């Protein structure tokens, strides 16, 4: 089984763990391949086990799994890189929260045997596709978590005129607007008051950012809705963010958002559970009255 390994600017303290992981893989019958930038970083520290490397960009054909070492930002970058190739992505958390990259560093060595036996689970998660920005985005037009449109360089609000499958929905006077997938419902959308959605659902979540009208609340739509957002900005400048990527735009234009015709493939261990991740990563249901303040 061929496993590509990527890490984006890992902390120096994480390099021994990464090196040990690469050295342990062959003992389980796994064939590691290392992103060139990570290989250079390991070699500069005197570490770096002898294994094949590949250049910047997606792993080579024939890769069975991409292991993302880092936080959720690193994981989102990895998913975007391989979304069109269908390679599953397993996230190992070397950052702070690690909601998507849920496998802890203390669990990764024990997971190698499970990977070697192919007993891991692959979930297909909905992706959003953006249209109307092909010049700026090229083929990097997919998002796993969310697409947000946000004001830029000014305190003035922007107006977002939204149509859903050709029918006028609303004009949002706000700092911006988030269109989230079920996977992304626990990210930016949640911090702006959006609902938590089970990733097994088929929905879009529209969440305004700092709306001027307090009667405008988050809304859940079926994922077959095709959204069109026309932005009206006083300063004519605004940002479109796809997960952890951001592009500046100017002028009035129609931005389309729809469910992509392909899915992200996310790998996790068999005992992974979305609800336990909510409780332990987000302290969901935390009750200070219970012993030790543990989630109840």
Helix/strand layout:
Elements: E1 2-7, H1 15-24, E2 31-35, H2 36-44, E3 53-54, E4 65-70, H3 72-82, E5 89-93, H4 108-116, E6 121-131, H5 134-137, E7 142-143, E8 146-151, E9 158-164, E10 167-174, E11 176-180, H6 188-191, E12 203-209, E13 219-222, E14 227-233, E15 237-242, E16 245-250, E17 254-268, H7 274-281
Parallel strand pairs: 1-2, 1-4, 2-3, 4-5, 5-17
Antiparallel strand pairs: 6-7, 6-17, 8-11, 8-15, 9-10, 9-14, 11-12, 12-13, 14-17, 15-16
What does this structure look like?
The protein has about 300 residues and is an alpha/beta fold. It has 2 domains: about 1-120 and about 270-295, Rossmann fold; about 125-260, Probable inorganic polyphosphate/atp-NAD kinase, domain 2 (Tumour Suppressor Smad4), CATH 2.60.200. The protein is about 20% helix and about 35% strand. The strands form 2 sheets. Strands 1, 2, 3, 4, 5, 6, 7, 9, 10, 14 and 17 form an 11-stranded mixed beta sheet that branches. It has a 6-stranded antiparallel beta sheet with strand order 13-12-11-8-15-16, with no helix packed on it. The longest helix has 11 residues, at about 70-80. It is globular and about 60 Å long. About 35% of the residues are buried.
Basic shape: globular
Outline the biggest β-sheet.
11 strands, mixed
Low-confidence stretches: none
How far the N terminus sits from the C terminus, by CA atoms, comes to 40 Å
CATH architecture of the largest domain: 3-Layer(aba) Sandwich
Extended strand count? 17
| CATH level 1 name of the largest domain | Alpha Beta
- Which structural class best describes the helix and strand composition? alpha/beta
CATH topology label of the largest domain: Rossmann fold
* Rg from Cα: 21 Å
Percent helix, as a range, is 10-25%
Percentage beta strand: 35-45%
Quick one: CATH superfamily of the largest domain? Probable inorganic polyphosphate/atp-NAD kinase, domain 1
**SSE string, helix = H, strand = E?**
EHEHEEHEHEHEEEEEHEEEEEEH
- Tally of DSSP helical segments: 7
Taking all residues together, what is the mean pLDDT? 90
Integer tally of domains: 2
């Amino acid at each position: 089984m061929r496993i590509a390994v990527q890490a984006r600017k890992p902390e120096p303290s994480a390099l021994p763990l990464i090196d040990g992981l690469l050295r342990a893989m062959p003992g389980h019958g796994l064939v590691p391949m290392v992103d060139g930038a990570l290989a250079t970083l390991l070699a500069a520290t005197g570490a770096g086990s002898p294994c094949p490397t590949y250049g910047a960009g997606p792993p080579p054909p024939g890769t069975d799994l991409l292991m993302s070492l880092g936080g959720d930002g690193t994981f989102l970058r990895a998913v975007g890189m391989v979304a069109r190739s269908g390679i599953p992505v397993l996230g190992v958390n070397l950052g702070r929260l690690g909601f998507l990259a849920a496998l802890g560093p203390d669990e990764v060595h024990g997971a190698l045997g499970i990977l070697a036996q192919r007993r891991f689970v692959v979930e297909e998660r909905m992706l959003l596709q953006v249209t109307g920005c092909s010049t700026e985005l090229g083929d990097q037009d997919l998002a796993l978590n969310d697409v947000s449109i946000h004001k830029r360089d000014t305190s003035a609000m922007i107006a977002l005129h939204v149509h859903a499958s050709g029918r006028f929905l609303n004009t949002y006077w706000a700092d911006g607007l988030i269109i989230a997938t079920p996977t992304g419902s626990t990210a930016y959308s949640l911090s702006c008051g959006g609902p938590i959605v089970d990733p097994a659902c088929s929905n879009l979540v529209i969440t305004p950012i700092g709306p001027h009208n307090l009667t405008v609340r988050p809304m859940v739509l079926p994922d077959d809705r095709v959204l069109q957002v026309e932005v009206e900005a006083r300063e004519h400048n605004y940002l479109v963010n796809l997960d952890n990527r951001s592009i500046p735009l100017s002028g009035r234009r129609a931005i389309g958002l729809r469910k992509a015709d392909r899915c992200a493939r996310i790998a996790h261990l068999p005992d992974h559970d979305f609800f336990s991740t909510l409780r332990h990563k987000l302290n969901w249901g935390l009750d200070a009255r219970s012993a030790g303040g543990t989630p109840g």
